[in-house]
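User: Second chain of the day. Same drill as before.
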Amino acid sequence: MSKQSEQSENSQPSKPLQKLLSWLFKRQREEVIIIIASCLALSLFIFLWVLSCTVDDFWGKAAGSNGFWTLFALILSAPIAFCIWHFRDQNTIKQLESQRKDVNLKEFHKIAEWVSGLHLVEEEITEKTKQTGQQPNIENPTSESTQSISNTALEELETARKYGQAGNQRHLPSHSREDGAVGLQVAAVYMLKPFFCGEHGDDFRRPALNLLTAAWLALFKQVEEQENLKTDPSAPLLEDNLKKLRGLRKSSLAIALTEVLLAEGGKHLHLHPEVFPNLYLPYVDLDLLGLDTEKVKQLFYKKNCIGIQLQGAFLKKVNLQKTDLQKANFKGAYLEEAHLEGAKLQMANLEDANLEGTHLEGANLQGAILKSIFSRSAHFQGAILNYVRLQKAHLHNADLRDAQLQGAQLQGAQLPIAQLQGANLKNANLQKTQLQGADLEGANLQAADLVNADILETLHLDQVVSWTGTLLKQHDAIYIQKKFNLPNTDWILTPDDINISSEEWPVYFKFQKQRPVDSFTHSLNIAKESQSELLKQFQELNPDWNIEIIQINDSLKI
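Assistant: Same format as last time:
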């Protein structure tokens, strides 16, 4: 064994030689030639110096021979010849690169036409307008009416439609010209990949990216425009439009655009961080087969993605930690088990999003829209959710410990078994909210609106930090008072038969005690004709509070 190991070690080149060879292979061709020529010249000089030291009168004898001057002329002219050759070689390389760039530019222009759909077959419509001088018969026309009619020519509009049709008799079965044009558009997207990846030079990277994002915009533009024409922008997607969008996401063109944009795990898209703000990629699928999903899911990590448009996108387990997502649009997006810890989501739109198991610890969602979200077992621990809109949100078993929910709109939300320990719910609107089994230990309910909320089966109501100014129905308040024997609560009672309807405009009631600090305002959607009666009931139920109607807003509706 020792002999074999010694032979193997002797057969392998030494480490210094390996390093020298690896260094030479990394050099350019011209650099290697110069290094070899220098070594040969140095070797020749050493050889001649050794001869001059050992042979008597070496230079005299060498000068007398014919071959010496030939060798001397060769050595003298070699550097000049090398410089001429190097110049011509570089000039030839530049000419070839210029020709190649011209060819690539022409190819890119042609591919750009195909990707943009300029070649697609469309119907040709011709409109012709004819003017006729016929006038209607008018009995006893006046001079003014006759003059106006004579100056008016009757117009007829003629429309002709021209389109191609495949012949019925073909020798070989094939697709139509229109289907072929669509196939060519998809193929052109894949042909654009070498330009986007920089295989034809870095100059084509950004134009290729602009072309790909513009094609994605054009693909979803028509459906988006139909959504913008809706009278109520907050209404859910129309069923027909939703089917179209899902079909577009699975179309061959959308798949091709996704594969090219996210080629090599999004490595080439990473080279353009300036495009991430306001990037338009709705309904993109980051779990598409063929993608390097592990790398793609790190695409937006710690990036500046302000205003990014990802509505309806499939973003399961995506990493968005510490990403700036202010004013981003995630409406209807699929964010199951996504990581958004520490993300900036101020004023973001997460309406109808799927946040099941999503991690939002420490995220800033102030002013965000989370209406009708599905967020079972989501992690909102320590998140900033001040003034968010969470109406009708599904937050089963959500972790909201130490979350900031001041002024949050939680009407109709489902929060069973939610963990709300230490949560700040000051001025939050919890009308008709389901809180069965929710844990409110250490929560702050100051000035919260709990009218019609299902709060009687909530845990640790006796450990709520503050009830001051909390709006409760009389029956619920009596039940809680008897069950937990609470001390001075300073809550505000409402009649049990109070009729609150979302169809009515909000009426603002101001409740104030002797101390200016204890002043709270609650808005209730009630009919105008019942305002006076409700004010009297408020004063009877809350004799320690001075109550007045301070504003009736007919232009804003909660």
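Strands lie at 124-132, 154-162, 471-473, 492-494, 506-512, 519-525, 546-552.

User: Great, on to the next one.
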